[in-house]
Amino acid sequence: MAAFIEENVDLDAVLELAEPCSVPETEVIQSLGTDLKIGVAWDPAFCFYYRDMFDSFGDNGAEVVFFSPMEGEVPDVDGIYLGGGYPELYAEVLENSETTRKLKGLRLTACLFTQNAAVFSISAELTSR
Fold first, then answer.
1. pTM exceeds 0.70, yes or no
2. Are 65 and 101 spatial neighbours (Cβ–Cβ below 8 Å)?
3. How far apart are CA 63 and CA 69, in angstroms?
4. Is pLDDT above 60 for 38?
5. What is the C-alpha separation between 49 and 16, in angstroms, rounded?
6. CA 103/CA 69 separation, integer angstroms
7. What is the pLDDT of residue 77?
8. Cα 7 from Cα 42, distance rounded (Å)
9. Which of 57-61, 88-92, 97-101, 109-113 is predicted least confidently?
10. What's the CA gap between 104 and 58, in Å, rounded?
11. What digits encode the pLDDT tens for the residues 42-61?
């Protein structure tokens, strides 16, 4: 591969065209200093997350508590975060889960964060009954 690139790509021209990138300045947000507990769904239905989200929760004083909606778990937390994943593949399990029944009662007392449209439609379904 290296030999092919050396023979067919003008690396000096590529480097000349490349410009140093600049990162725009961002405003530093002060930590909220809270002692919130955020429940994060973690099982085959909800398994796609970015590590920086967990870091952000922790940086702002929140404790992350993992739970499995497929197993019927609902932790004692201040908010729920349903990440991305494949909830549509586990719709029947989630529909019959104790978590689903308990989350219906949380809609007025806790935050419900979602990461993608598929999860959003499920959460909307959960809170509309």
1. no
2. no
3. 19
4. yes
5. 37
6. 10
7. 84
8. 49
9. 109-113
10. 27
11. 999 999 998 888 888 888 88
